[in-house]
Predict the structure.
Amino acid sequence: MLYVVLFLAGVAAGMGPLVIWYHGRLSLLRVEKLRLKGWDERLKSYSSDLAEQENDLKKQRGQLDGAVESLEAQKVQHQQELIQAMAAFKAQQVQDQRGLDQAMAAFEARKVGYDDLLKENGLLKQDLFNLSVQLRKMERDHAAIGRRQEEIDQKANELATRYLDENVSWIANKLTAKNFATCKDRLTKVVSQCRDIGFDVSQEKEDELVQALRKNFERAVRAEFEREEQARIRAQIREEEKLNREIEKQIQEAEREQAAVEGALQKALQEARDEYSAEVEHLKAKLKEAEEKAQRAKSRAEMTKAGYVYVLSNIGSFGDGVFKVGMTRRLEPMDRVRELGDASVPFPFDVHMMISCDDAPTLENALHREFHKQRLNRVNFRKEFFRVDLESIRKVVEARHGEVDYVADAEALQYRDTLAMTDQDYEFVEETVQSVWDDHDATNVDE
């Protein structure tokens, strides 16, 4: 504002050019002032940067001073280590020199003179000559021992061969149709024993011996089969003769019964004089039954393969899941079942199936072949016991024979009663039975 006033006053006083010059000069001063102000700010900024750089330099100088001190300390330590290393090197040098001196002294002490060498050479030549003589003697002795060893080996091989042959012969003589596994095991052990004593039995030789044993076993089985077949034929002949006697007896009984019924019927007809009589009808029925019975007996005599195939179990003797599958031509098949349950087994057999068929041997053979791998006795195939379930037996029977009645669960009465019997009950039963036996024996003595 002051500037404006002065400007107007100068113009009014006629000092226009001076005022203008002054105005221009004032503007330049202002610009210069602003420029100086900028420089002042820059100087302040540069001063601040210089202060920071100075601080950084002080820090770096401090770090350099620490590094210099550390280097000085390392220098001192390295100098000490170098002094110690030099001392150790000098001590080792002294020790090495002492060892070298001792080695040189020992070498000097071990030096041998020429005369001593000549004397020692003579002794060595004498020793070599003696060794040569002993070596030739040892070679002759070794050759003699080798010949003796060959003779011993030959005799040992002869003895081992004889031992093997005698055992093979003994095994062949002991071989039957029921002990192949035992004989093969014995043969394998004999071969192993021969190998243990040094007798070389090749694998081919062992295979030949086993193969020969198999062939001998096959011959033994065939011979056993022939013997058993002859025995079976003789037993079958006896069975058929017994069966024929039973059939003949039944035929005779049926004929006598038929004749008696016919006589009674004729007598009843004469007494009734063609009138209805219940007794007449009863006699006619009995006559028809006697005729059918006689006819069945005659038909049975004509059928050589007819019979019964039975399936039995004996839990008390053989346990669960074991069945006997066989056949009989008896007119009364239960007689055969009772025979099987005699004193040879502790408990009687239970009947699961009793199959009447026209060709009993074929059905029995089919069952035996079907369950061949389930045999209880794998040595004697005449034993007819199989470990199999009853349902499998039923399926085979129905497939080859037709529907059949069977008993699924065995009664095993004596076995179950034995398990359920207490010691007191057993004592009572034993006393009772013993008392009856004593009374019977006393009766027989009195008679």
In short: The longest strand covers residues 350-357. The mean pLDDT is 78. Residues 158 and 199 are 10 Å apart (CA to CA). The first helix runs from residue 2 to 12.
